[in-house]
Amino acid sequence: MTDSILDLDRRHVWHPFTQEQIAPPPMVAVGGKGDRIFTEDGRELIDLVSSWWVNLHGHGHPAIARAVAEQAARLEQVIFADFTHAPAAHLAARLAGLLPGDLDRVFYSDNGSTAVEVALKVALQYFANRGEDGRRRLLAFDGGYHGDTVGAMSVGKSSGYFRAWEGMLFPVEMVPYPSTWIGDEDVSAKETAALDALEAALTKDVAAVIVEPLIQGASGMRMCRSDFLQGVAERVRAAGALLVFDEVMTGFGRTGAPFACGKAAVIPDMVCLSKGLTGGFLPMGATVVREPIHQAFLGESLGQAFLHGHSYTANPLGCAAGLASLDLLMGADCQARIAAIEAIHGERLAALAARGKIQHPRLTGTIAALDLGEGGYASALGPRLKQFFIDRGFLLRPLGPVAYFLPPYCIGPADLHRAWDTLEAALLEDWPYAKTGPGAAAITKAP
Ligand SMILES: Cc1ncc(COP(=O)(O)O)c(C=O)c1O
């Protein structure tokens, strides 16, 4: 008798972000189409989290699948130090055209964490190349998450995920983040305090400030206003440091605009991209920098160059997927779907908030979020709500007590309304963990 997939998995596979001893066994995915994931045991789940925020147009989109297959038959991979190729050049030009200002130069890597590492390393070497060796410090925002490699963990250490590795992280000063929501009366005061703290921290030795623009994802879909980002940009520029926007999650339409920087009317010095870059088909990252930054790396000596690279840099399959995905994203049909998702989110969030069953309702573009109670990532609220949704045919992955919808753009209005109906049902059924108070406190703990 042959072993089942689950038997083999149980014996040989180690899953990310999972306590395997107590978590239910993983579901065995056998297919995906549109907003649905199909499992071996015959279930059909609507993917409300775009499979960790990567999928834009639905699973197995035929246009992207075809582009990848055609590219695979032509050229699957080539060393990018000595070569270039059509998909890499075209994708870089498309990204430069979509991003504001002179964000024109694309450095490819493998994932969101590497896109961030590249930005941090470029920032430090940029100043060293210009003879400003003293600028070596990095600033980041409370609650920011930027990935799981050492540099990315260092700038994201306040997100609360990295206790085990504190000793290997380099020092990064954290400044307050004015997390806000619909009806937040204190937002202006929080923004002023955060900007004052940033200004005080922006001493002459700061090389770069990194921020997830408009939405801090992993720490609980914590949102901020465009005005705040404009204030950040003003202060960072005045201090002579570089501003890095980590758009690994916010890029490619999630905020309702192609990129959060455009929506916020800010031109940062660098933008980190990944996740939706390939429409969710292949792992790839990109760090897009303003051209003057790139110029500082040109010269006669190899030492002035950016001596950084990954084996699969600018993988042709990923670039081909990226081009096909951008064609879909910028089409009128997709833009209309994005607007429709935002409209439904807005209507349903307002109705739920009016019933007083949720806290901190918030919405930016296609991402809607709310708090169901207190506690951190390890809160038991998350797994229970997740199971409630799975039992009703939806994949939801709450971040502790934070429930959020971040669906692929192909989701239809009826399915999105059903998702909101399900959340409403969880709350109206007087779902035992939907309340704060002693009962909830007993089952929650900070991460
Ligand atoms: C804002 C942000 N930056 C960076 C990352 C890291 O990306 P990856 O998991 O591809 O390394 C993530 C992942 O969730 C993210 O949300």
Q: What do you see in this structure?
A:
This protein is an alpha/beta fold. It is 38% helix and 16% strand. The chain has 15 helices and 16 strands. It has helices spanning 5-12, 50-53, 62-74, 86-98, 112-129, 150-155, 187-201, 226-238, 260-264, 291-295, 316-329, 332-354, 381-390, 413-428, 438-442; strands spanning 29-33, 36-39, 44-47, 103-109, 137-141, 173-175, 206-211, 215-216, 222-223, 242-246, 270-273, 285-290, 359-364, 367-371, 394-395, 402-405. It has a seven-stranded mixed β-sheet with strand order 4-12-11-10-7-5-6, with helices on both faces. A four-stranded mixed β-sheet has the order 1-2-3-15. It has a three-stranded antiparallel β-sheet with strand order 13-14-16, covered by helices on one side. The longest helix has 23 residues, at 332-354. The radius of gyration is 22 Å and the shape is globular. Mean pLDDT is 94; it is low at 433-447.
